């Protein structure tokens, strides 16, 4: 029983104690003649209204409207507690229904009585038809009961007014019964009763609207068209809101002009009198014919319908009009609904639809959206519908329309755990209750919660939804906590819904839940997007099927992990990689503890496992990187590592070993971990393209430096005398520009300088041996990403000596350098070995690459000739020139050759162009106005886009490649890694657009 304080003026001395803030409240109480001593029951009830001020104002307005009859109403308020609760709750909750009551004050009597009984569906229909004089009429030759139509005697504006009034009369009665518990100790009307009554009322309303439409169109003539109205969406599921669009589809025989006019008129009348009537779910949407024959509907769904259209048909039911025709419609289309899950793109289409719905939410209300937001009503409905479509093909018990009925059926079939279903149902009904209260306020379609700083609106909603203070927190605080709890619960169960029954079927956890059969589990995995569902089931059995503590933890973790994995482009590979990782790290207690305790780490791991073939292999050998997947004080730990510090650590670690093999092995181990860190941060979008290139170049340089140092130390120890020469390693190509990708080799030149007194021949021979050993040690077969040292850019190419002295390089470039060799020197930069010697080499190279007066016009023509030849001959056979990231149109080669041509032409006088970095050189080109800034922006964007795509190719496939796929799973993985998580087609179109525009700049510079 609802408690009430004892009587006494001291408890309720005035309006403020009643929860009122309106300055006129005291005067209004006086107008009603309510006294704080004698009318304590009335005042106490008024204080419990969702908005006491609004309720009091409504009472005064009702008194004025009733005039001399107010006395009867006042007496009923004093004696009939049920009536008191209903009237005050409506007046304090809904301005729209209050206005309707004031306009029709006699309706107060319909709220009287100990218990308020709601009309049956048949009585609602009869009442709505009576408001417009609707009479039944049969079509000749058809079943008189199932195919009858109604015709109204009232049409035009009068009909709309009468229909609106009759509809709101019924809505007032339902709302009064639904809201009464907020004021008095009335039974709470169950959610299912409310939504089914609203649906029955909508059916009755549109039956009456159809009767008016028939008479309007046929105007006394016989109606020869059979027309059936099919309810869709919430109305079809019999779970309608107080204010919803009512989705319908029309079937007619014949689908002639009369049928179309009747359907259009019914929609117009219904939308004007009751609620928006929407036929956008019909075949071809708003662009399609409003009315079709049954055969036309069947033909469309057999050939053209999208997955979402079959999902919508889950809710289809005959609503009004020719019921026999409507039943035939459902009978013919239903079998198609239950086979849609066999479509190859079924799950992805359902997910796209859900993502599209989420994307429509404005950012400023995203956290307040009850219906479409994460953890909202749509999450429940989409999840339930997906499970229905997956298992309904073989289980007819799932062929139900409402969300709560479907959850009950899913529990009975073992597809959802009992506890999860009960919690999900409770959260769904709570969120629907809030939605109903928000809509009742003004009878407006809304799903948006009040802002957290709108205390009064939250207080009103809390009271309208039967939420009370808990002794420590006020009502609005309790409401906010309840909303957060239920939204979080929906999110959590949404993640478990597809996977918990699977895991209960394969694990040995004690559970009272029914278990899926193997066939049902495979069917569910297939529908969830697994290409090899039987293999996936085997992985789940291996992970959670044991009795160890690890298996139990896995069974608890996997629902969430698999849900995160489901958003990646390759769930099958991701699950296999997770199984391999779990088995490899079985003895590492920190692994599962990290995943259990650090949600960010677990989510990031799933993103990487489900998208990359490159990083998981590294993680298996460098599992300590997984500890960086969580968040630190300043953000992701993956970003706490500095590439320069890694390089220093790599050099220091390798320096501890006496043999080159062990030193380089130590360097490889640190490189492996750093590649795993960089690749992980790249996939997660934590590093931009220049940062990735810089980090990759830094680790390559450190490995070269460590290898050179180790090989020289071993040689010196073996010789028993000092080294006969200094050695420097000059980075060329992308290594020289600090722009390496994951699949890049290290292009280098080796230069030596004999020590004083040393024989030059001996020194060069010794340095050549050092260079060969470095190449051999680093290029040795390994399961790690390759460490290829490429010296083909040396003078005379492969036929030239591996190592030259500084003087020999100087002499060669001065006399014999070809144009391509001069161009290659533009990227030369000292990277390893003797720094002083390296700088001396660069000073020597400056004379060649930046000659006084610039390069000759002959050299420029040669560069253009070589570029044209590369364009026509170097592209691999069968490669798409629009999608080759290195040699394709607007790709890396195009941009880099353009920059280098401009450097050759202008760097002799523009010192800022003396730069090995492509991006920094582009900045200089723009700053010096050599090219318009708009052109350099196009080149920059293309270089970054192509580099990102090339890196993503390696991360996705696990091996170097330059050709972007044009479709399929491979493209999805590349697009996902490149940051295009939703639509790989948009990524490809973006790539083509950017590179096409850059190609235009390239052609202009090269004069082609």
Automatic annotation (TrEMBL):
<keyword id="KW-0460">Magnesium</keyword>
<feature type="domain" description="PII-uridylyltransferase/Glutamine-synthetase adenylyltransferase">
    <location>
        <begin position="352"/>
        <end position="498"/>
    </location>
</feature>
<feature type="domain" description="PII-uridylyltransferase/Glutamine-synthetase adenylyltransferase">
    <location>
        <begin position="865"/>
        <end position="1006"/>
    </location>
</feature>
<dbReference type="InterPro" id="IPR005190">
    <property type="entry name" value="GlnE_rpt_dom"/>
</dbReference>
<protein>
    <recommendedName>
        <fullName>Bifunctional glutamine synthetase adenylyltransferase/adenylyl-removing enzyme</fullName>
        <ecNumber>2.7.7.89</ecNumber>
        <ecNumber>2.7.7.42</ecNumber>
    </recommendedName>
</protein>
<keyword id="KW-0511">Multifunctional enzyme</keyword>
<keyword id="KW-0067">ATP-binding</keyword>
<feature type="domain" description="Glutamate-ammonia ligase adenylyltransferase repeated">
    <location>
        <begin position="132"/>
        <end position="328"/>
    </location>
</feature>
<comment type="function">
    <text>Involved in the regulation of glutamine synthetase GlnA, a key enzyme in the process to assimilate ammonia. When cellular nitrogen levels are high, the C-terminal adenylyl transferase (AT) inactivates GlnA by covalent transfer of an adenylyl group from ATP to specific tyrosine residue of GlnA, thus reducing its activity. Conversely, when nitrogen levels are low, the N-terminal adenylyl removase (AR) activates GlnA by removing the adenylyl group by phosphorolysis, increasing its activity.</text>
</comment>
<dbReference type="GO" id="GO:0005524">
    <property type="term" value="F:ATP binding"/>
</dbReference>
<dbReference type="InterPro" id="IPR043519">
    <property type="entry name" value="NT_sf"/>
</dbReference>
<feature type="region of interest" description="Adenylyl removase">
    <location>
        <begin position="1"/>
        <end position="502"/>
    </location>
</feature>
<dbReference type="InterPro" id="IPR013546">
    <property type="entry name" value="PII_UdlTrfase/GS_AdlTrfase"/>
</dbReference>
<dbReference type="GO" id="GO:0008882">
    <property type="term" value="F:[glutamate-ammonia-ligase] adenylyltransferase activity"/>
</dbReference>
<dbReference type="GO" id="GO:0047388">
    <property type="term" value="F:[glutamine synthetase]-adenylyl-L-tyrosine phosphorylase activity"/>
</dbReference>
<dbReference type="Pfam" id="PF03710">
    <property type="entry name" value="GlnE"/>
</dbReference>
<comment type="similarity">
    <text>Belongs to the GlnE family.</text>
</comment>
<dbReference type="GO" id="GO:0000820">
    <property type="term" value="P:regulation of glutamine family amino acid metabolic process"/>
</dbReference>
<feature type="region of interest" description="Adenylyl transferase">
    <location>
        <begin position="510"/>
        <end position="1008"/>
    </location>
</feature>
<dbReference type="InterPro" id="IPR023057">
    <property type="entry name" value="GlnE"/>
</dbReference>
<dbReference type="GO" id="GO:0005829">
    <property type="term" value="C:cytosol"/>
</dbReference>
<dbReference type="Pfam" id="PF08335">
    <property type="entry name" value="GlnD_UR_UTase"/>
</dbReference>
<keyword id="KW-0808">Transferase</keyword>
<dbReference type="GO" id="GO:0000287">
    <property type="term" value="F:magnesium ion binding"/>
</dbReference>
<keyword id="KW-0548">Nucleotidyltransferase</keyword>
<feature type="domain" description="Glutamate-ammonia ligase adenylyltransferase repeated">
    <location>
        <begin position="603"/>
        <end position="843"/>
    </location>
</feature>
<keyword id="KW-0547">Nucleotide-binding</keyword>
């Amino acid at each position: 029983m609802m408690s009430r304080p004892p009587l006494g003026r001291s408890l309720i001395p005035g309006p403020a104690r009643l929860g009122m803030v309106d300055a006129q409240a005291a005067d209004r109480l006086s107008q009603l003649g309510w006294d704080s001593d004698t009318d304590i029951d009335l005042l106490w009830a008024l204080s419990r209204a969702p908005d006491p001020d609004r309720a009091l104002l409504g009472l005064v307005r009702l008194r004025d409207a009733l005039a001399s009859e107010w006395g009867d109403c006042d007496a009923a308020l004093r004696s009939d507690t049920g009536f008191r609760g209903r009237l005050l709750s409506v007046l304090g909750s809904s301005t729209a229904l209050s206005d309707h009551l004031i306009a029709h004050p006699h309706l107060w009597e319909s709220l009287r009585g100990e218990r308020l009984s709601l009309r049956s569906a048949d009585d609602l229909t009869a009442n709505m038809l009576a408001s417009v004089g609707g009479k039944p009429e049969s079509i000749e030759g058809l079943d008189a009961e199932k195919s009858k139509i109604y015709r109204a005697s009232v049409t035009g504006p009068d009909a709309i007014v009468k229909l609106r009034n009759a509809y709101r009369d019924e809505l007032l009665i339902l709302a009064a019964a639904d809201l009464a518990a907020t004021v008095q100790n009335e039974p709470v009307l169950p959610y299912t009763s409310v939504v089914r009554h609203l649906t029955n009322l909508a059916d009755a309303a549109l039956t009456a609207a159809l009767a008016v439409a028939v008479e309007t169109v046929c105007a006394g003539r016989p109606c020869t068209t059979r027309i059936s109205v099919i309810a869709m969406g919430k109305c079809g599921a019999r779970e309608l809101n107080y204010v919803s669009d009512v989705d319908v589809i029309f079937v007619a025989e014949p689908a002639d002009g009369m049928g179309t006019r009747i359907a259009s008129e019914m929609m117009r009348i219904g939308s004007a009198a009751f609620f928006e009537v929407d036929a956008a779910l019909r075949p071809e949407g708003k662009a399609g014919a409003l009315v079709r024959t049954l055969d036309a509907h069947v033909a469309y769904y057999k050939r053209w319908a999208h997955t979402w259209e079959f999902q919508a048909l889950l809710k289809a039911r005959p609503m009004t009009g020719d019921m026999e025709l409507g039943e035939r419609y459902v009978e013919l289309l239903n079998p198609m609904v239950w086979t849609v899950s066999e479509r190859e793109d079924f799950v992805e289409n359902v997910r796209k639809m859900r993502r599209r719905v989420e994307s429509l939410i404005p950012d400023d209300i995203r956290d307040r959206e009850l219906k479409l937001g994460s953890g909202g009503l749509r999450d429940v409905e989409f999840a339930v519908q997906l499970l229905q479509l997956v298992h309904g093909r073989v289980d007819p018990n799932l062929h139900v329309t409402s969300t709560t009925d479907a959850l009950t059926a899913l529990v009975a079939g073992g597809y959802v755990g009992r506890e999860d279903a009960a919690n999900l149902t409770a959260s769904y009904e709570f969120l629907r209750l809030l939605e109903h209260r928000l809509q009742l306020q003004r009878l407006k379609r809304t799903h948006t919660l009040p802002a957290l700083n709108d205390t009064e609106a939250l207080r009103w909603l809390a009271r309208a939804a039967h939420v009370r203070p808990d002794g420590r927190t006020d009502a609005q605080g309790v409401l906010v906590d309840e909303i957060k709890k239920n939204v979080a619960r929906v999110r959590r169960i949404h993640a478990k819904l597809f996977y918990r029954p699977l895991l209960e079927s394969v694990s040995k956890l004690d559970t009272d839940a029914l278990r899926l059969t193997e066939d049902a589990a495979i069917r569910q995995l297939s529908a969830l997007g697994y290409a090899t569902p039987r293999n996936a089931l085997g992985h789940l059995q291996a992970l959670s099927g044991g009795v160890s503590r690890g298996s139990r933890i896995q069974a608890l973790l996997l629902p969430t992990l698999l849900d995160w994995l489901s958003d990646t482009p390759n769930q099958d590979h991701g699950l296999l990689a997770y199984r391999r990782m779990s088995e490899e790290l079985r003895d590492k207690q920190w692994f599962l503890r990290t995943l259990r305790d650090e949600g960010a780490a677990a989510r990031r791991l799933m993103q990487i496992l489900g998208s990359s073939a490159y990083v998981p292999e590294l993680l298996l050998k460098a599992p300590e990187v997984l500890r960086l997947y969580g968040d630190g004080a300043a953000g992701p730990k993956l970003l706490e590592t500095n590439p320069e510090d890694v390089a220093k650590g790599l050099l220091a670690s390798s320096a501890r070993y006496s043999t080159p093999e062990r030193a380089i092995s130590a360097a490889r181990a640190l490189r492996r971990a750093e590649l795993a860190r960089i690749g992980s941060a790249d996939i997660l979008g934590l590093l931009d393209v220049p940062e990735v290139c810089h980090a990759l170049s830094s680790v390559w340089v450190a490995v070269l430096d460590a290898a050179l140092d180790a090989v020289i130390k071993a040689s010196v120890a073996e010789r028993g005398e000092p080294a006969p020469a200094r050695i420097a390693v000059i980075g060329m190509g992308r290594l020289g520009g600090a722009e390496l990708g994951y699949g890049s080799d290290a292009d280098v030149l080796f230069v030596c300088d004999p020590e004083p007194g040393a024989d030059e021949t001996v020194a060069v021979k010794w340095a050549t041996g050092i260079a060969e050993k470095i190449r051999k040690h680093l290029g040795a077969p390994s399961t790690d990403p390759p460490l290829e040292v490429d010296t083909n850019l040396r003078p005379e190419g492969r036929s030239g000596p591996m190592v030259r002295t500084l003087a020999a390089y100087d002499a060669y470039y001065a006399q014999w350098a070809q144009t391509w060799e001069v161009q290659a020197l533009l990227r030369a930069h000292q990277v390893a070995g003797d720094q002083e010697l390296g700088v001396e080499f660069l000073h020597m190279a400056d004379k060649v690459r930046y000659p006084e007066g610039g390069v000759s016009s002959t050299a420029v023509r040669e560069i253009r000739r070589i570029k044209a030849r590369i364009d026509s001959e170097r592209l691999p056979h069968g490669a798409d020139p629009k999608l080759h990231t290195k040699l394709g149109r607007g790709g890396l080669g195009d941009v880099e050759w353009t920059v280098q041509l401009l450097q050759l032409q202008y760097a002799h006088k523009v010192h800022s162009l003396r730069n090995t970095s492509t991006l920094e050189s582009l900045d200089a080109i723009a700053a010096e106005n050599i090219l318009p800034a708009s052109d350099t922006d196009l080149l920059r964007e293309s270089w970054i886009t192509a580099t990102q795509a090339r890196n993503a190719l390696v991360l996705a496939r696990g091996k170097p490649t330059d050709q972007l796929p044009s479709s399929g799973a491979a493209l999805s993985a590349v697009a996902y890694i490149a940051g295009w998580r939703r639509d790989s087609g948009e990524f490809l179109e973006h790539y083509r657009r950017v590179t096409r525009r850059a190609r235009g700049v390239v052609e202009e510079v090269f004069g082609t």
